[in-house]
Structure formats: C-alpha cells, structure tokens
Amino acid sequence: MATHDTDVCIIGGGISSAMLAEKLAELKPGLQITVVEAGRAIDDVRNRGQYRQRAMEYGEHPWPGDYIEDQQGQGLISMTMAVGGLALHWGGACNRFSEEDLRLKSLYGLAADWPLEWKELEKYYCEAERRLNVSGDPSPYPQDARSEPYPQPATPLSYNLQTLKGWAEQSGLKWSPLPMARNLKPFGGRGSCCLFDTCGTVCPSGARYSPDFTFRQLAEPKKIALHDRTLVRRLVLDEKTDRIVSATGYHQDRPDDPTQYRAKLFVVASGYTWSAHLLLLSATARFPNGLANKAGMVGRYMNGHRFIQARAEIDEQTWPGQNMTHSLISREFFRCPTDKPFVRHDTRVWESSAGRDPRLRSPQGRLLVGDEVFEDWRSRTKGSSVRLRAYLDVHPSADSRLTLDPSKKNRYGDPMPKIEHRFDEATLARTAADETHVMSVFEKMAKASHGKIAGRNDGDYLDHPGGGCRMGTDPATSVVDSWGRTHDHENLFVVGAPTTPTGGCTNGTLTFVALTLRSAEEIARSVRV
Amino acid sequence: MKRRTLLHWITSAAATLPFLRVTLLAQPRDLTPESIDTLREVGATVLPASIGRDRANAAIENFIRWTKAYREGVPLEHGYGHPRLEKTAPSPVPGYVVQLAAIAKAAEAKGGRFATLDLETRRAILDEALTRGGVKNLPGRPTGQHVVSDMMAHYFRSSAANDECYRAEISRNVCRPIAITTKKPAPLGAQGGK
C-alpha cells in the first residue's frame, strides 16, 4: 500500500475545506496540508462560457464529470462530487443566522443551544464575508448589528427590485438587498459580475465565489497537496489509543492500490452527507457503531429548513429578465417574542416572469402563430409577477437520520447513505400555524398593490441541509465540541455543515464557513509543524 | 450460457450487425434539403412577421444551427433537491424530418406547398401536427417532441423575443454592466442596439 505523510489531512474538497486549507496555510506557513477529494478537479474556467451556453440551449449539465455515479444516496440534494463541491453551483447567498439560532433552548425551550456565543460567531462571520468578498448593505434591523462593514457595497438593485422594494415595504417589513459572494470588481483572482444571471448554474466570470479558485491558488504554489479522484473509504484507528493514524484512499484509476494517508490530525470536511457516512463506515471492534460515535449521535439530528414559495400578481410594472438571481430579504421574522407562538422565517422577493411567458395556445385552445404569440404575450405583461419565499425554522428529532443503506452499495461494496429527515414534536405541532403565518405575510404584501397570491408551492425537501455530527458540550448528546473536535478522538475534527445543531431560517453556507474558520484556529493550535 | 448457445448468438448478432449499421446510418444527422425548405415555410408562419424578414430568417437559421450542434447522451442538469442522472436523448433530427415531411404532405393534400395555403389552413395543419405529437404547451427550450413547437420555443424563449415582447432593451442573460439594470429598460432601439 502506498503511503502519503502529511501534517493535516482534510477529507473533502468543498467550500469548508477550501476555507480551512486557506486559513491553515496562512496561520501555519510550512504546515503540510493534504486535501483528498473523491471527485475530480474541473480546472477549466476558460470553457465555462461555453458550458453555460450549452446549459441554456440544450439543458446540458455545465460541470462535466462532477459526479460519481455509484457514490450517491437517498435524500441527497445534489449529485455533485467534485473539487469545489456544491459551492460550484451555489447561488452565492451569504445571509447570517441570528442570535436566536444559537439560543433556541434558552429562549424558547426548543431544540438545542449552540455551544458558542453569538459575539464569538459574529467575528467569524466578518472573516467569512471578507474571504468570500460578500457584497451587502447593513440590515435595517438594529438586532442585526455588525462589528465590521461588508467588504463590498451591496449588489445594486435592478430597476425591477427597486420597484418591488417599494411595493414590499408597504407591508411594514424592512428589506435589504440579498448579501452575495459576488465580485462587483475583480477580486481574489476572479472577475467581476457582468450579469450572466446564471449564478446557481455556472458563473463564467468567476464573480460568484466558488472554491475551485481557492484550491488552485493553494495547490499551484504547493501550499497544499490536492489529491482529487480519491475516495477515502475508512479512517484507521490506532490499535491502542483513540487517535486516528491514517485514512485509506482509493484513486479512481487504481482501485486495487489504496493509499494510506498518515497525518497528525484529520479533518472531515465532507459536507452534510459524506462526513457522517465516513465515520459510520469506519467502525472498528472498539467503535462498533462508527468512529466518534460512542454516544450513538453520528448521523442524527439531520437538519435543514422547510420552505414555502408563492407567486404574487401585483400592479407595479417590472420588466422580467433584469437580474433574476438577485433578491430582497427581510429579517423581520428572524426574531420571535418569547411570549408569542414560535415562528421564525426569512422572507424573500424576486422578480419573476411566471404566468407571463409566451404560450402556444390561447385560453380557448386556438393555436397561436406568428405575431399572435406576441399579442397574447403582451396582453399578460401588465403589472408584475413576484416570486416569494420563506425558509422556516424547523427542528430535527434525534431520529432525523443518516444511516447506511445495505441495499445500495458502491463499486467497493460500501453501503451508501440514506437520509430521512424527521421533525421534533414541537415542530410538527406548529406546522399548520407556521404555514398560516407565512401565507398571511405573503397575502398582506400582495394586498398592498391590489395584488393577490396566484399560486403556492411548498418545498418537498429540506434546503441547505446540515447536521449528522452536531456540536455540543455534552459528549452524550453531541459528536463534536464547538471547535469541531470529536469528543471521542483528540486528533479528529469535523467542520462545516454537519456540525450545526439546527438549520436556521436562511441560507446556511456563510454559517458553515464561519464555523469552519473558527475551527481552523483550534486545528492550527493543535498541530505542531 | 452454453458454449453452443453463445456461438449461435454471436453468429446471429454478426449477421444482423450490417443491417443495424445500415439502419443507423440511414437516420439523417442533419435536416435534409427538402425538410429545410418546409421548415423555412413553417417558420415564416409561426415566427412573427413584425421582427422583419431578415431576423425571422436568422431565427430559422439559428434553429437549424441548434439541430446541427445537438449532442446525444450528454448528462442533463442534475437538478437540486431531488437530483437524478438523465442524458440528452437521441438527435431529434430524424423525427423532425418525418414531421416536416408529414406537414408537406398534408399541405399537398390541401392543394399545394405549405407557404401557398391560406393562414387558417396552415394553422389547421400545424394544429393537427402538434396535437398528434402530443404537444400541449410551448416548451422552455426545444425538447425534440415536435419540430414546430421546438422552433417556436427556440425563438420565443430567447432574450431577443423577451425584448420584442416588452419592446424594451432588457437583454436577459446577456453579459452587461450591472449599472444598466438599475434603470428602467430603454425602449427597444433607443440605444441603437436593435
């Protein structure tokens, strides 16, 4: 078996891994850092304009070979497994959670408190925003006070969003542009935004942050070693102690010749699915339920947020297509008075063309041809269609789980993950009230402009998933401490999404990065060069 | 599988292969000259005359280019939430050729070439063709279901058609400075673009 010696071995190559590797390389120059990623490095920025064009014209996937067909599972939200991870095609939304997310138990008697203070996390939010070069305006809500300004001003609101902001403010809610990891000027070796407006698919200019840039910038000057197309199937425990001694990786081209990655410290940065999966797969005689799993907590409390979407029809005139990936956010309902029924959610507004697209037939069924299509289309362009969405704060039960599915195995015979989200009793009990509240907010907004809600669409999966290795102070009820260090193994960390106890009520990526940047400092302190 | 059975299978398959190959080669990869003629006639009906002949012709040529650049068996976008691996279907061109031949034949039955028929007769022919093809709505992009709805989708779902509809320079999905979008879109042609 080939061996590879390093100081820190990071397993997984997504956004948390990129941020961790970048910060470790700064904190400890000379530290040997190896990143092992199961998927391939798609190092072809120059082709992304073409990929985007083909995605738009033919629906082709714009990230060639970014998946491993037999390394999938039930309940995953994306097939992507590549250097850069899901942040290759994220929208770039960089919302913070709020202090309430960290104090759900103390304030409301719900779910669990996070084992760190808001003031502490806020510092790392600032750092995350700097590294991702977030553009944003300060929130109009004083509870959202920041210790540092955003590194960039907000992405300018399009005429459409300015119009919709004026409309949405009539409901009494306060709105701001969505903070986004989107370069308004070139930064970090990436270009500036020129509104291709396909952030969530592919960004040809690199204006929307993606981790592949960071990995290239670290790997080329050899600040890290990046081993792609190498699946870590097991973490190996020392025979006598509870330390991890190696990780066994299998390169796609050498399935019979594994590499033993030996390191002083191991970091599992494999996202909400593959982190818990690896720990469960690495069971030994002394840890028969998986590593870091003495308490049986690995794979539990899988979280995320429910979402409700609706379409409003209003009188204000917009021109669909100006900047459809940008939106407004209100944090009005991030706070919930402790003497009122609990409900928390963000509220978002986008321009939309829904219900106002060209069509083939008239309402009477007559086939429309030539200019008749335009006439019919134009007759429906007066006023605006508005896309609304709320991410609801819902809490997982202990049975919200990732388990190993013996019925689905990869080429090596490893069982694949199966994720089944379940809510705790309090969440289930307030489901109807949550929905009523959100729809009443949407209806109030619509009425402000003689509008109406023209359609509703509830998500049937949990967005921005996390959990599975939740952090806490009690080893009996958590997997890692606030730094991501596993309770059971001194030199094994888990970072990012899997460590979150609850999923919040807004996009999670910035929080995953902030937590990881905090972990990086403890990891740097824990390893000697 | 027994050895004798295997040998028999190999022999049968080998005997069949040339025919299979001939069948596959017989499938047109590009639209035939006849089908392109009919496509242009259909295009003149289903694309808007108000954009002018040159731009309507350009829209038809763009669609023909789209058919030439089609790739089979390429992974489609996996989606988010409930991802799944699907690949692009076989080229729609053979189906298009058949559909266009059927339209030409229906036109002949009505008295001549498609372009020479009155609008309601042309509409009826297209309506029947689309109904037979199971097309109910204008797809978001060409899907291979029917050449008529695909050509219409290729144009009417474009950024240019969006601008025409709103008679404004919105330029959806076109690389442009953000600052432009902060203002109400200029009337079409006001900035000399169209």
What does this structure look like?
The complex is a heterodimer of chains A (529) and B (194). Chain A has 529 residues and is of the alpha+beta class. Chain A has a single domain, classed as 3-Layer(bba) Sandwich (FAD/NAD(P)-binding domain). Chain A is 24% helix and 21% strand. Chain A has helices at residues 15-27, 48-58, 99-102, 104-108, 118-132, 159-169, 211-219, 271-281, 371-378, 425-429, 431-447, 509-526; strands spanning 2-11, 33-36, 176-177, 225-227, 230-237, 244-251, 259-268, 300-314, 328-330, 347-352, 384-392, 401-409, 415-420, 452-458, 463-468, 492-494. In chain A, strands 1, 2, 4, 5, 6, 7 and 16 form a seven-stranded mixed β-sheet that branches. In chain A, a hairpin with a 6-residue loop joins strand 5 (230-237) and strand 6 (244-251). The model of chain A has no long low-confidence stretch (mean pLDDT 97). Among the domains of chain B are: 33-69 and 89-157, no CATH class; 169-194, no CATH class. Helix content of chain B is 55%, strand content 0%. Chain B is built from eight helices and no strands. Chain B has helices at 3-26, 33-46, 53-68, 93-109, 119-132, 147-156, 159-166, 178-181. In chain B, helix 4 crosses helix 5. At the A-B interface, helix 2, helix 6 and helix 9 of A face helix 5, helix 6, helix 7 and helix 8 of B.
What is the molecular shape of chain A? Answer: globular
CATH class (first level) name of chain A: Alpha Beta
Sheet with the most strands, sense and barrel status of chain A: 7 strands, mixed
Question: Radius of gyration of chain A over alpha carbons?
Answer: 24 Å
Alpha plus pi helix count of chain A: 12
* Number of structurally distinct domains of chain A: 1
